[in-house]
Amino acid sequence: MPDYLDPPASPPPSTAARIGIVAAVRTVEMPFGSIAVHAVADDYVTAIARAGGLPVALPALGEEWTESLVGTVDGIVLTGGPDLDPATYGERSDGSVGSDPVRDALEIGIARAALRRRCPVLAVCRGLQILNVATGGSLRQHVDGHLGASVRHRVDAVPGSHLARAVGATSFDTGSLHHQAVARLGTGLRITGRADDGTVEALEAADGAPLLAVQWHPELEGGWVSASLFAWLVARAEEARWT
Fold it and tell me: Which candidate, 58, 62, 65, 52, places its Cα nearest to that of 17?
């Protein structure tokens, strides 16, 4: 685990911004048999806590629960995960693997509810793709050269964007663990970061709403870029509580 994700020495105050992490249902083997659990990855939990937020797991209930779930928190992390079902953006499978239609429907609903409420969002990898599809965009179902534990590339951020302001730079290196990317851009979004081969690496709301989506996995990396993104989310969530 990256050093900066070591658990904080003390918990945040009870008034800290509540940051929801959308859970996924997983099967866990127990001595008495298999059980289904609503799981969130520890890396997200610890990154939020290190940034001063209070991590809150949002259960993977039906999509009819989305408004209620979003209403319980001050900010949201849309996490990484499997490929979206291409049917969500009107296409047939052409390189997509391992989709989860139930999770797709829930997270697309949560993304739309968060946008309506202007709830601060940090979207990671699949989360970026969820936001793009939720706003009418589509995906490139396979891109070469962006998936691997040792793959790294430069990201160029648009000056003045949330991304550039959050990290304090317009060019930096990141890892890369995805094989899909934005094709048609969703309505109301703008591209604020690209890899050196032109692949979309960051999206934000065109109207400046507190939304930041990145195609890499900051929760898995150490360093100032990763820490800055979670700090940005917690700061925006704290602001939203009082507006």
Answer: 52
Q: Please confirm, yes or no, whether 217 is among the known catalytic residues.
A: yes
Q: Judge whether 238 counts as a catalytic residue.
A: no
Q: Has 125 been annotated as catalytic?
A: yes
Of the residues 125, 201, 204, 221, which is catalytic?
125
- 70-79 pLDDT tens trace: 999 999 999 9
Which of the following is catalytic: 201, 204, 219, 221? 219
- What does pLDDT average to over the chain? 89
* List of the chain residues with pLDDT < 70: 1-12, 14, 95-96, 147, 242-243
Given the residues 162, 178, 179, 217, the one annotated as active site: 217
Rounding to the nearest 10 degrees, give the CA dihedral for residues 196, 235, 168, 47: -60
State the sign of the Cα–Cα–Cα–Cα dihedral 95, 148, 181, 240: positive
Cβ-based burial of 144 (10 A; exposed 0-12, middle 13-18, buried ≥19): exposed
| Domains defined along the chain, listed by start | 16-241 (3.40.50.880)
